[in-house]
Specification:
The chain has a single domain, classed as DHBP synthase (Alpha-Beta Complex), CATH 3.90.870. It is built from five helices and eleven strands; from the N terminus they run βαββαβαβββαβαβββ. Strands 1, 2, 3, 4, 5, 6, 7, 8, 9, 10 and 11 form an eleven-stranded mixed β-sheet that branches. A hairpin with a 4-residue loop joins strand 2 and strand 3. The radius of gyration is 15 Å and the shape is globular.
Protein backbone atom coordinates (compact mmCIF):
# COMPACT_ATOMS: atom_id res chain seq x y z
CA UNK A 1 0.00 0.00 0.00
CA UNK A 2 1.47 3.34 -1.07
CA UNK A 3 1.23 6.02 1.63
CA UNK A 4 2.06 9.70 1.86
CA UNK A 5 4.58 11.22 4.26
CA UNK A 6 2.09 11.98 7.05
CA UNK A 7 0.55 8.50 6.88
CA UNK A 8 4.07 6.99 7.01
CA UNK A 9 4.80 8.98 10.18
CA UNK A 10 1.46 7.96 11.74
CA UNK A 11 2.13 4.29 10.98
CA UNK A 12 5.67 4.49 12.38
CA UNK A 13 4.39 6.04 15.60
CA UNK A 14 1.91 3.15 15.92
CA UNK A 15 4.69 0.57 15.63
CA UNK A 16 4.35 -0.40 11.97
CA UNK A 17 7.20 -1.24 9.64
CA UNK A 18 7.22 1.23 6.73
CA UNK A 19 9.31 1.12 3.55
CA UNK A 20 10.87 4.49 2.81
CA UNK A 21 13.06 5.81 0.02
CA UNK A 22 16.50 6.97 1.13
CA UNK A 23 19.29 8.72 -0.71
CA UNK A 24 20.58 5.30 -1.79
CA UNK A 25 17.97 2.50 -1.94
CA UNK A 26 14.61 1.75 -0.30
CA UNK A 27 14.79 0.92 3.35
CA UNK A 28 12.40 -0.47 5.92
CA UNK A 29 12.06 1.53 9.09
CA UNK A 30 10.44 1.51 12.51
CA UNK A 31 10.29 4.22 15.14
CA UNK A 32 13.04 3.45 17.64
CA UNK A 33 11.02 4.14 20.78
CA UNK A 34 7.93 2.13 19.77
CA UNK A 35 7.74 -1.10 21.83
CA UNK A 36 8.04 -4.27 19.76
CA UNK A 37 8.79 -2.45 16.51
CA UNK A 38 12.42 -3.56 16.23
CA UNK A 39 11.40 -7.19 16.72
CA UNK A 40 8.84 -6.77 13.92
CA UNK A 41 11.58 -5.42 11.64
CA UNK A 42 13.88 -8.37 12.38
CA UNK A 43 10.98 -10.76 11.67
CA UNK A 44 9.91 -9.10 8.41
CA UNK A 45 13.45 -9.17 7.04
CA UNK A 46 14.15 -12.66 8.45
CA UNK A 47 17.33 -11.08 9.80
CA UNK A 48 19.30 -12.81 12.56
CA UNK A 49 19.22 -10.74 15.75
CA UNK A 50 23.00 -11.08 15.95
CA UNK A 51 23.25 -8.69 12.99
CA UNK A 52 22.71 -5.21 14.43
CA UNK A 53 20.37 -2.69 12.83
CA UNK A 54 21.49 0.90 12.19
CA UNK A 55 19.63 4.05 13.20
CA UNK A 56 18.76 6.99 10.95
CA UNK A 57 18.96 10.38 12.62
CA UNK A 58 17.56 13.66 11.29
CA UNK A 59 20.57 15.89 11.88
CA UNK A 60 24.34 15.29 12.02
CA UNK A 61 24.52 17.21 15.29
CA UNK A 62 22.37 14.52 16.95
CA UNK A 63 25.13 11.91 16.67
CA UNK A 64 27.01 12.96 19.82
CA UNK A 65 23.97 12.23 21.95
CA UNK A 66 23.91 8.61 20.83
CA UNK A 67 27.51 7.61 20.06
CA UNK A 68 31.15 8.52 20.58
CA UNK A 69 33.62 8.05 17.75
CA UNK A 70 37.41 7.68 17.96
CA UNK A 71 37.57 9.49 14.63
CA UNK A 72 34.90 11.96 13.53
CA UNK A 73 33.56 11.13 10.08
CA UNK A 74 30.26 13.00 10.50
CA UNK A 75 31.52 15.63 8.04
CA UNK A 76 30.38 13.20 5.32
CA UNK A 77 26.77 13.67 6.49
CA UNK A 78 24.20 14.05 5.31
CA UNK A 79 25.12 11.26 2.98
CA UNK A 80 25.41 7.52 2.32
CA UNK A 81 27.66 6.70 5.27
CA UNK A 82 26.81 4.63 8.34
CA UNK A 83 29.26 5.26 11.19
CA UNK A 84 29.63 2.76 14.03
CA UNK A 85 30.55 4.23 17.40
CA UNK A 86 30.39 3.37 21.08
CA UNK A 87 26.96 3.87 22.61
CA UNK A 88 26.33 6.69 25.04
CA UNK A 89 23.99 6.60 28.03
CA UNK A 90 21.16 7.83 25.73
CA UNK A 91 21.49 4.82 23.41
CA UNK A 92 22.65 2.20 25.92
CA UNK A 93 19.25 0.48 26.19
CA UNK A 94 18.33 0.50 22.49
CA UNK A 95 17.46 -3.02 21.34
CA UNK A 96 19.15 -3.15 17.92
CA UNK A 97 20.57 -6.66 18.00
CA UNK A 98 24.24 -7.44 17.59
CA UNK A 99 26.92 -5.87 19.78
CA UNK A 100 25.12 -3.95 22.50
CA UNK A 101 28.14 -1.69 23.14
CA UNK A 102 28.09 -0.07 19.68
CA UNK A 103 25.57 1.63 17.41
CA UNK A 104 25.60 2.41 13.69
CA UNK A 105 24.26 5.86 12.90
CA UNK A 106 23.39 7.41 9.55
CA UNK A 107 22.11 10.83 8.53
CA UNK A 108 20.84 10.40 4.96
CA UNK A 109 21.02 13.05 2.26
CA UNK A 110 17.26 13.05 1.77
CA UNK A 111 15.16 15.87 3.22
CA UNK A 112 11.99 13.78 3.39
CA UNK A 113 13.60 10.94 5.32
CA UNK A 114 15.20 13.40 7.75
CA UNK A 115 11.78 15.08 8.29
CA UNK A 116 10.25 11.68 9.03
CA UNK A 117 13.06 10.89 11.50
CA UNK A 118 12.54 14.29 13.14
CA UNK A 119 8.78 13.72 13.50
CA UNK A 120 8.78 10.00 14.41
CA UNK A 121 12.07 10.02 16.31
CA UNK A 122 15.21 8.14 15.29
CA UNK A 123 14.43 5.32 12.88
CA UNK A 124 15.74 1.78 13.16
CA UNK A 125 16.36 0.79 9.55
CA UNK A 126 17.69 -1.72 7.11
CA UNK A 127 17.51 -2.12 3.36
CA UNK A 128 14.09 -3.14 2.05
CA UNK A 129 14.66 -6.81 1.27
CA UNK A 130 14.86 -10.18 2.94
CA UNK A 131 18.18 -10.65 4.75
CA UNK A 132 20.94 -11.46 2.27
CA UNK A 133 18.93 -10.50 -0.82
CA UNK A 134 19.69 -7.46 -3.05
CA UNK A 135 18.25 -4.13 -1.86
CA UNK A 136 15.14 -2.78 -3.57
CA UNK A 137 15.22 0.34 -5.73
CA UNK A 138 11.50 0.79 -6.49
CA UNK A 139 8.08 0.41 -4.88
CA UNK A 140 7.39 -2.59 -7.12
CA UNK A 141 10.56 -4.35 -5.95
CA UNK A 142 9.70 -3.62 -2.30
CA UNK A 143 6.23 -5.15 -2.65
CA UNK A 144 7.62 -8.17 -4.53
CA UNK A 145 10.25 -8.75 -1.83
CA UNK A 146 8.25 -7.98 1.32
CA UNK A 147 4.57 -8.34 0.40
CA UNK A 148 1.80 -6.11 1.71
CA UNK A 149 3.74 -3.33 3.40
CA UNK A 150 3.19 0.41 3.64
CA UNK A 151 5.56 2.12 1.18
CA UNK A 152 6.33 5.79 0.77
CA UNK A 153 6.87 6.20 -2.99
CA UNK A 154 10.02 8.13 -3.76
CA UNK A 155 10.44 6.94 -7.32
CA UNK A 156 13.27 4.74 -8.49
CA UNK A 157 16.43 4.85 -6.37
CA UNK A 158 19.65 4.09 -8.18
CA UNK A 159 22.22 4.43 -5.44
CA UNK A 160 24.33 1.80 -3.79
CA UNK A 161 23.71 1.02 -0.11
CA UNK A 162 25.59 3.17 2.38
CA UNK A 163 29.21 2.54 3.20
CA UNK A 164 29.57 1.26 6.78
CA UNK A 165 32.63 2.35 8.76
CA UNK A 166 33.71 1.22 12.23
CA UNK A 167 34.94 4.41 13.92
CA UNK A 168 35.28 2.94 17.41
CA UNK A 169 39.09 3.14 17.12
CA UNK A 170 41.47 5.75 15.63
CA UNK A 171 42.37 3.27 12.92
CA UNK A 172 38.87 3.11 11.46
CA UNK A 173 37.91 0.39 9.01
CA UNK A 174 35.34 -0.18 6.31
CA UNK A 175 32.85 -2.90 7.27
CA UNK A 176 30.88 -2.64 4.00
CA UNK A 177 31.90 -0.78 0.87
CA UNK A 178 29.02 1.20 -0.54
CA UNK A 179 28.28 4.54 -2.11
CA UNK A 180 31.21 6.39 -0.50
CA UNK A 181 34.61 5.11 -1.55
CA UNK A 182 37.88 5.20 0.40
CA UNK A 183 39.13 7.95 -1.92
Amino acid sequence: MVVDEQKAIDLLLRGAVVAIPTDTVYGVAVALHTPGATAALFALKERPTGVALPVLIPDPTDAGAYATFAVDLTGYWPGPLTIVGHRTAMSADWDLGGDQSTVGLRCPDDDQVRRIAADAGPLVTSSANKHGEPPCTSVEEVVAALGDIAVLDGGVRTGEPSTVVDATQKKWRVLRQGAITLA
